[in-house]
Amino acid sequence: MQSQSYHGYQVWGHSIVELEGEFQRERHAASGTITLRGKLVHASGVLGHYESEEDAELAGPDWARAWVDAHS
Fold this sequence. Notes:
Blueprint (H helix, E strand, L loop, with lengths): L1 E5 L2 E12 L4 E12 L2 E5 L4 E3 L2 H18 L2
Antiparallel strand pairs: 1-2, 2-3, 3-4, 3-5
């Protein structure tokens, strides 16, 4: 899980392991969460699927920063 401070909000990136196909190839679903003073502001659905956990976790804060910018 990745966390960053952005314009007073905490933005989070999450990776959820998924198994795909007959050979159970691992992939990672990305999501994001925004909190303010410890309270949930908004959460995404699945933002996309990535080969690595790190790439999936980085997608969440990117989405969250864009959301904060659009709603400020």
